[in-house]
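Title: Prediction job returns without error message
Component: structure pipeline
Severity: low
Priority: P3
Assignee: unassigned

Description:
Job completed but the reporter wants confirmation the result is attached to the right record. Sequence as submitted:
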Amino acid sequence: MANVPSNGITTADMTITYDASKLEYVKGEAGSIVINPSINFAINKEKDGNNKNMFLDDTLLNEYISKDGVFANITLKYPEHQQ
């Protein structure tokens, strides 16, 4: 994430799509700018080729995203038949 506003970000909802015939989802984790990710961050492979990421400052007070940096780390790999 870049250019985070001075009052921060309290919610974010992102969908990442990819060609499931060329890539396979392995895992996703919160990035370094997410405070308390076990409560405030969720990532889910909705279906092959579609990944949902959500952030919500559950406190609505002080666990918001306040700086530029890595929001999520997503690992994809080539499917076995591609190698």
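Comment from assignee: result matches the submitted record. The chain has a mean pLDDT of 93.
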